[in-house]
Amino acid sequence: MDNVINDISKQYLEDFKLYLEIEKNFSPHTILAYHKDVSDFLSYLGSMNADRVQHKTIREYLASIQPHNYSKTTVSRKIAAIRTFYRYLYRERIVEANPADNIKSPRKNKSLPKFLTETEAMSIINAIETNTPAGFRNHTILEVLFVTGMRISELCHLKFENLNLEQNEITVFGKGGKERIVLISNRAKKYMLSYMEKIRPILCRKEHSEEDFVFVNNTGFMLQPKSVYNVIKDTAKKLKIQKKVSPHVFRHSFATKMLEKGADLRIVQELLGHASISNTQIYTHVSTERLKQAYTKAHPRAV
Fold first, then answer.
1. 113 found inside a domain
2. Span 89-100, pLDDT tens digits
3. Which domain range does residue 268 map to?
4. Is residue 96 part of a domain?
5. Residue 98, domain member (yes or no)
6. What residues are annotated to the active site?
């Protein structure tokens, strides 16, 4: 893919990027990935304009990248990026039809999400000391993640206007800017109130600090997801928990726990902000698998 993108296609690409940023409100990570995927495809086209592409050309491109041995997830994303690109060109009346519409993504092997038991999750949370401003903030964050199931990016972008702690509610803006309400426990609320009243002012003592975001770093600016990931990973390592632990595993753990306790699948879907119920149903498989393991272990005639 060493070909140079022609000027017409290059302009389409830049306009597409703006469309993803402004109209679709995709995350920076998704925008970067889609831009790269479409850029690779346009490089493959070389002198051919993007608006001249037919279904066959896309099939040939996908065949040409097979030697790279990309994962099914990566190939699916590349197809989604190209499909979205041509959906945009169709909307702008640049093409008469979407040549990628009938391109099928490879069937992915759905693996069960990793999760923590309640004991493991609480051991990580309780292992974080609260005697420093950063420690208290980190402890509060994990309390909130475990009881709300929100994504770490959603938590880092929380603003004070999103909080309705009197009603134990937090308004979250998920993928594509979709709004939903998550619920917070009294315990987590207590930590949040203490953090906002006593700890955050210490972190924001610098002259230049951000006033809007609830969770800030040690210099008063919006906390980055990577920082939380490192805290969780390092704490789990110290506790010798034999699992790969991340903020998203806390989200998985929340969903699994809710279903184990009998929560309705649609309620869990709403709390997680899943567009499709099928994304939430995978957690029922986790719960069923745990039931099977418990049965096999406890029943004398199970094996």
1. no
2. 999 999 998 998
3. 118-298
4. no
5. no
6. 151, 175, 248, 251, 274, 283
Q: State how many domains the chain has.
A: 2
Residues 229 and 267 in one domain: yes
Q: What is the CATH number of the domain that holds 243?
A: 1.10.443.10
Residues 6 or more apart whose Cβ sits within 8 Å of residue 136: 130, 191, 194, 195, 198, 199
20: its two tokens: 């993803």
Q: Which long-range contacts (CB under 8 A, 24 or more apart) does 180-189 make?
A: 180/270, 180/271, 180/273, 182/148, 182/149, 182/150, 182/271, 183/147, 183/148, 183/271, 184/144, 184/147, 184/148, 185/147, 187/143, 187/147, 188/140, 188/143, 188/144, 188/146, 188/147, 188/148, 189/165
Q: How far apart are CA 216 and CA 233, in angstroms?
A: 19
Q: Model pTM?
A: 0.63
Residues 227-281 have pLDDT tens digits of 999 999 999 999 999 888 999 999 999 988 888 888 888 998 999 988 888 888 8
Domain boundary residue, one of 75, 91, 107: 91
Contact 240, 123 (CB under 8 A): no
